[in-house]
């Protein structure tokens, strides 16, 4: 029955996408971020994402609506980063393995550009936020309930076969999702909806802690600090954060506390030592190879050449050193420049959106996107999620909202806050 329902939903989305390509973008995002077909016995091996993308392209060709081609600082740097990854590909040490991941990354980035050309209205922005929050919030609520039910004795893991299948990766994704849920709470009417979204945020936080990811704990702390700094009622908000934080941490078992305490003694931790060794390997590799080593450089042969400890082979576990090792200093510069521009635009939304009541939602979105980016940029320093979809979808939200605020597109679609109303 589950397979039948899921297949029917996916088929319905594909049919709708052929008439309204923006719905295809929502379907692609849902499939790409959540991997719902992984829950199906019959669909998990099928190219569902490719089928959704194909339906969207048919809709683009058949639709009478014009695509919104435009260039911003963010889109220009993203395309330059994509171009640089194409340039570095032939110089990969392991071309076959690099090519497979290159194809995957190019698909994600290309669909990000397609989404920027198709989406334009507040309804589209709200719908995309609901899709992102709902897709990852599902795992957050599920993992949070599991953590509470087991007393935090077992780790929370992400969906198998996805970018976030590891405990560290799913934790960071959930940390980044919490601000998006908060934005929806601020801009969605209804007492019970507010309570439900509050529960979702708490369960996502519990799930992130239940993953026993030290990077996620640091990311949560950084996000909470920014949210407190941006809040109007600092004393009340600070008190709430402290009470909730103490309650969740007290609930966790001693094994969790012992693991988190190793943050202070990272120099004595073998895992942390392995990461630092991998960071030096990436730095040395980029120093000796202008184009980097290509994708998939965590191999014994390259560690033997460039690592301080050639026998301690680890993945970089850092978005920064991952890009540095794979695409050199030019790639790292473009990667950092991209997120600098996204951060700057989100900050402009936060400041300028407060000037008018009708644009307050833009200010809320800019603020929460910055909070989410803090989680990514801080937590990502310890995780290999350089090409994960979610940050690039936040780029979409920021860029599209800036265009709306600047009056560069005419919002002809009605502003409906809920995804269900958007798809009606």
TrEMBL record:
Source domain of life: Bacteria
One Pfam family named in its UniProt record: DUF5935
Domain DUF5935: 1-185
Location(s), subcellular: Membrane
GO molecular function, a single term: ligase activity
Membrane topology: Multi-pass membrane protein
Domain O-antigen ligase-related as annotated: residue spans: 199-336
Transmembrane feature ranges: 43-63, 75-95, 101-120, 127-150, 170-188, 200-229, 235-257, 278-307, 319-343, 364-384
InterPro entries in the cross-refs: CHP03097O-antigen_lig-rel, DUF5935, O-antigen_ligase-rel_domated, WaaL-like
Keywords per UniProt: Ligase, Membrane, Transmembrane, Transmembrane helix
Primary location class: membrane
Cited NCBIfam families: PEP_O_lig_1
Matching PANTHER family: LIPOPOLYSACCHARIDE BIOSYNTHESIS PROTEIN PA4999-RELATED (PTHR37422:SF13), TEICHURONIC ACID BIOSYNTHESIS PROTEIN TUAE (PTHR37422)
Protein name: O-glycosylation ligase, exosortase A system-associated
Organism: Roseateles koreensis
Lineage of producing organism: Bacteria, Pseudomonadati, Pseudomonadota, Betaproteobacteria, Burkholderiales
């Amino acid at each position: 029955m589950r397979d039948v329902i899921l297949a029917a939903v996916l088929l319905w989305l594909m049919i709708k996408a052929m008439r309204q390509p923006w719905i295809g973008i929502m379907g692609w995002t849902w499939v790409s971020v959540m991997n719902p077909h992984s829950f199906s016995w019959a669909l998990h091996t099928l190219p569902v994402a490719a089928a959704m993308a194909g339906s969207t392209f048919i809709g683009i060709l058949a639709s009478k609506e014009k695509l919104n081609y435009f260039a911003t600082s963010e889109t220009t740097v993203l395309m330059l980063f994509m171009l640089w990854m194409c340039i570095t590909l032939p110089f990969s040490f392991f071309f076959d393995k690099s090519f497979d991941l290159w194809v995957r990354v190019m698909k994600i980035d290309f669909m990000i550009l397609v989404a920027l050309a198709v989406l334009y209205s507040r309804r589209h922005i709200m719908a995309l936020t609901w899709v992102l929050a709902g897709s990852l919030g599902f795992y957050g609520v599920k993992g949070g309930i599991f953590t509470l039910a087991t007393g935090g004795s077992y780790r929370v893991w992400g969906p198998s076969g996805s970018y976030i299948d590891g405990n560290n990766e799913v934790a960071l994704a959930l940390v980044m999702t919490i601000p998006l849920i908060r934005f929806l709470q601020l801009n969605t009417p209804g007492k019970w909806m507010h309570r439900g979204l509050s529960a979702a945020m708490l369960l996502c936080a519990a799930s992130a802690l239940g993953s026993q990811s030290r990077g996620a704990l640091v990311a949560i702390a950084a996000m909470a600090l920014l949210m407190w700094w941006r809040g109007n009622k600092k004393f009340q908000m600070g008190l709430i954060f402290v009470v909730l934080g103490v309650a969740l941490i007290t609930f966790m078992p001693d094994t969790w506390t012992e693991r988190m305490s190793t943050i202070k003694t990272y120099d004595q931790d073998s895992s942390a030592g392995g990461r630092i060794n991998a960071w030096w390997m990436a730095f040395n590799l980029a120093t000796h190879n202008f184009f980097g080593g290509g994708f998939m450089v965590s191999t014994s042969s390259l560690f033997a050449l460039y690592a301080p400890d050639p026998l301690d082979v680890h993945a970089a576990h850092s978005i920064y050193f991952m890009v540095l090792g794979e695409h050199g200093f030019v790639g790292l510069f473009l990667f950092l420049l991209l997120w600098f521009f996204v951060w700057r635009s989100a900050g402009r939304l936060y400041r300028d959106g407060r000037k008018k009541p009708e644009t307050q939602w833009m200010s809320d979105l800019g603020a929460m996107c910055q909070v989410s980016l803090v989680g990514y940029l801080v937590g990502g320093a310890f995780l290999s999620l350089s090409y994960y979809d979610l940050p690039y979808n936040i780029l979409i939200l920021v860029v599209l909202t800036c265009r709306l605020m600047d009056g560069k597109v005419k919002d002809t679609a009605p502003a409906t806050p809920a995804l269900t109303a958007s798809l009606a």
